[in-house]
Design a protein that fits this description.
Number of strands: 0
Structural class: mainly alpha
Radius of gyration: 22 Å
Distance between the termini: 75 Å
Largest sheet: none
Shape: elongated
Order of helices and strands: HHHHHHHHHHHH
Amino acid sequence: MPGKKLPEETRREDILRAAYDVAARQGVEALTLRAVAARADVSHGTVLFHFKRKRELVASLVDRVLYATAVLRIPDAIATITRPSERMHALLRAEMDRLSADPRHFRLLLDYWTIGVRNATIRQKIRVALEQYREGFTDLSSAIVSGEFGPSRRRASQNGEGPKATATGLAAVVVSLIHGCALQSLIDPKGFDVQQHFDAAARMLLRIANDQQTS
């Protein structure tokens, strides 16, 4: 008895999920239409119906990769934290844990960045996604920086007596710490200590928070 026929959009979604799984396990270069067909438990012809060539399938996966690596997740428990420095602290740890727990997702981001060197469309998608990821931290960064720079500190900064911190600058540093954690977890999983990385980042945030309280 033949199986139930799925809507074409559902079938395409199943194929994309299978393709992501194959790429996450073996890398984008190892992605083939036949490997995806086997993973999705469909015929090679079914995959060809939706994706005529490997490059079409690869291009269709980039949004999933960016969702896994460059879209900020804010758990409900963190969203309820009112103090900006404490919320940033918790969010930093949550994102480090999430991205380092399964570094295959970040490896795909690196694969796609390599592809993006030659493909302007993919490069632009990655650039936009990273910009939006940084923007996700900007409100918290703004609250922390504005507290760090009370009137006396702001005058000192303007007079060249100290660095000019900005919300966008702090947000960029936070993203660098998160993605740096994921990168090192991928490259050196045995030698890299996520906890030490987080502790160093937390001390940096604590110093800013202390400046905020004393400014």
